[in-house]
């Protein structure tokens, strides 16, 4: 089973993807994590994307599609969770083609429904906790980048809600609920 977790920054996609990895032996493909790894390892691509990410803008479709293409060739285990990908309509089309090419299907698109106030609180809170623990804070977890990340979400990513709705694949869960409740809602959708 292959699924997409859709929602704005701070909606809880990464947390829920972690649960799905635990519960269903699925593979989490987070383009955000992949890009941060590339940045930290100092590769050419990493250097190229560092500034774009810190500002809160999207990196090019070509780069992220390339990252996902590579991962789809490996072990599939309990299926893939796409977390933070696709983020544009071009990426959504590319994902459809990539899955088809390797004989896979997309089984569900789960939208974590939240509101902006909670996102700002969660992300600013996450940055403060990380800093208090003495760990490095994400370069894009500040209010200025967050505004740009939210705008990128509404302009470039939220059209995917209509796109997957039209394909009959979209399912919403209340992302404002407690984490275990969201986990249970997602499990119920996948077990249907
Ligand atoms: P968020 O918590 O904001 O959802 P992510 O960890 O998913 O953050 O992504 C962090 C940054 O990495 C994004 O703001 C963007 O610059 C870049 N990025 C991640 N995934 C994609 C993608 N699919 N397309 C373009 N840029 C991406």
Number of strands: 5
Q: Estimate the mean pLDDT confidence.
A: 96
Distance between the termini: 12 Å
Main pleated sheet: 5 strands, parallel
Instruction: Identify the quaternary structure here.
Output: single chain
Overall, the morphology is globular
Strand residue percentage = 5-15%
Spell the H/E element sequence. Answer: EHEHHHEHEHHHEH
Rg for CA atoms = 16 Å
Secondary structure layout plus pairing:
Elements (H helix, E strand, L loop, with lengths): L2 E4 L6 H12 L2 E4 H10 L3 H12 L5 H12 L7 E4 L5 H13 L6 E6 L2 H17 L10 H15 L1 H8 L3 E5 L4 H13 L1
Parallel strand pairs: 1-3, 1-4, 2-3, 4-5
Helix pairs in contact: 1-9, 2-3, 4-5
Bound molecules: adenosine-5'-diphosphate.
Provide an overview of this structure.
- A 5-stranded parallel β-sheet has the order 2-3-1-4-5, with helices on both faces.
- It is globular, with a radius of gyration of 16 Å.
- It is built from 9 helices and 5 strands.
- With 192 residues, it is of the alpha/beta class.
- The mean pLDDT is 96.
- Helix 4 packs parallel to helix 5.
- Adenosine-5'-diphosphate binds next to helix 2 and helix 3.
- The site of adenosine-5'-diphosphate (ADP) has 17 residues, from helix 2 and helix 3.
Write out key terms for the chains shown.
192 residues; alpha/beta; 5 strands; binds adenosine-5'-diphosphate
